């Protein structure tokens, strides 16, 4: 992969969960066989093919750890995939950010859902770590860009062959591990879906 393209799109890629992360760790699945079946449905209120959740409503700013909530409230912004961007293979997304008051110190989170045929949930690369949120298996990839900005992406199975995901770029709070924040948000999503 072209390293200039990776550098230029690093922030976008990490925020898109399923796009190529700087080290190429989160490649979308395109016809690749996945290990293991999708877990059986845990909810009866959803139908196959329907949206598993509204990414702007499944979590709120109050679900983020106190360490990163330096402002009273953050209004999520709907972030659908850009049809002109082939790496944006998710179906719907929502962005939360806390960086308006601190220029060039990004703190951005993207919550998404999409199809398991396009979003990989199995460890494949050296930086991938298998994760479980409740009974949902997935994969997590931590990253640090060339400027030292930390990021983390997690993807996990949902019902009916769908995938949820959370990504975070954290250039604002150096003592906060982005994977800890991503884990807390992913666990909250699964808890709400399974209740």
Short description:
With 195 residues, the chain is of the alpha+beta class. It has helices spanning 3-15, 178-194; strands spanning 77-78, 92-97, 107-115, 128-133, 136-144, 150-157, 162-170.
Notes on the structure:
The chain contains two helices and seven strands. The protein is α+β, with helices and mostly antiparallel strands. It has one domain. A seven-stranded antiparallel sheet has the order 1-2-3-7-6-5-4. Pfam families: DUF3558. Residues 1-26 form the signal peptide. This is DUF3558 domain-containing protein.
SSE order and pairing:
Layout: H1 3-15, E1 77-78, E2 92-97, E3 107-115, E4 128-133, E5 136-144, E6 150-157, E7 162-170, H2 178-194
Antiparallel strand pairs: 1-2, 2-3, 3-7, 4-5, 5-6, 6-7
Signal peptide: 1-26
Protein name: DUF3558 domain-containing protein
Pfam family, one: DUF3558
Whole-number total of structural domains: 1
**Which radius of gyration do the C-alpha atoms yield?**
16 Å
Helical proportion, percent range: 10-25%
Number of β-strand runs: 7
Can you give the mean pLDDT?
77
Keywords: Signal
Pfam family, one: DUF3558
Region (Disordered): 31-50
Organism: Allokutzneria multivorans
């Amino acid at each position: 992969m072209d390293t200039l393209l990776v550098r230029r799109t690093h922030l976008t890629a990490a925020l898109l969960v399923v796009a190529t992360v700087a080290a190429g760790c989160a490649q979308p699945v395109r016809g690749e066989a996945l290990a293991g079946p999708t877990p059986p449905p845990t909810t009866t209120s959803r139908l196959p093919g329907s949206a598993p959740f509204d990414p702007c409503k499944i979590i709120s700013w109050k679900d983020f750890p106190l360490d990163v909530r330096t402002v009273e409230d953050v209004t999520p912004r709907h972030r659908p995939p850009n049809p002109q961007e082939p790496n944006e293979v998710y179906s719907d997304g929502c962005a939360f950010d806390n960086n308006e008051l601190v220029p060039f110190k990004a703190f951005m989170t993207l919550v998404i859902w999409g199809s398991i045929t396009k979003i990989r949930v199995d460890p494949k690369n050296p930086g991938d770590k298998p994760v479980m949120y409740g009974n949902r298996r997935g994969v997590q990839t931590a990253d640090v860009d060339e400027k030292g900005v930390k990021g983390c992406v997690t993807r996990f199975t949902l019902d009916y062959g769908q995938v949820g995901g959370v990504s975070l770029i954290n250039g604002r709070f150096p003592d906060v591990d982005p994977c800890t924040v991503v884990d807390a948000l992913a666990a909250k999503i699964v808890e709400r879906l399974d209740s």
